[in-house]
Structures
1.
Amino acid sequence: MRDKTIDYVLRTTWLAVQKMYNEEASKFDSTMATGFTLLSIDPESGTPSTALGPKMGMEATSLSRILKTMEESGLIERKPNPKDGRSVLIHLTPFGREKRDYSREKVLTFNETIRGQISEEKIDHFYEVAELINGLISKKSIYNQNED
């Protein structure tokens, strides 16, 4: 495994996780993206639509498509934000809450299974490495952004 690049390992591992979640979600006519969105919406007070994209690390165009599909499926509803008339809150419907609980259960099962196979020390190192990589990327420390 050491002869493979770090980005290769990250990418192939994430693609395997994504495929696993999509296969599981497809059993219930859903997708991983829908489950992730359901988990990102506050089940009690809703979430401003403008906050969802940054929270999920997703582009507005992709998120808009997912939200439209979710609304058509009866998972969410859009309501005016009482604190800011210019924005919209995304709320879960009862059906959306049900699907959210299912998504949460699947994520917790994944995490429990992985934690059952890997020592706490290795998990801590994994998080440390991920935070370091994210920090280097967010600080634009890997490539000089002024290069042409």
Note: The helical segments are 6-26, 32-40, 49-56, 60-72, 94-117, 120-138.
2.
Amino acid sequence: MKTFFKILFKVCSILALVISALFVVYFWNLDQKVMGWAYTQVNRIHDRKKVDIKF
């Protein structure tokens, strides 16, 4: 029974850490900020490429 409670405590603590991390990401909208930064970097890379198609 003692090992069951140890395992249950570990699972609950890991679950609490995951939920708190997801809440922080949601609260400060960090996923959209990272995607905005990545979008800017990708556009900067592609804007430097030479264009071989001319209209």
Note: The two ends are 75 Å apart (CA to CA).
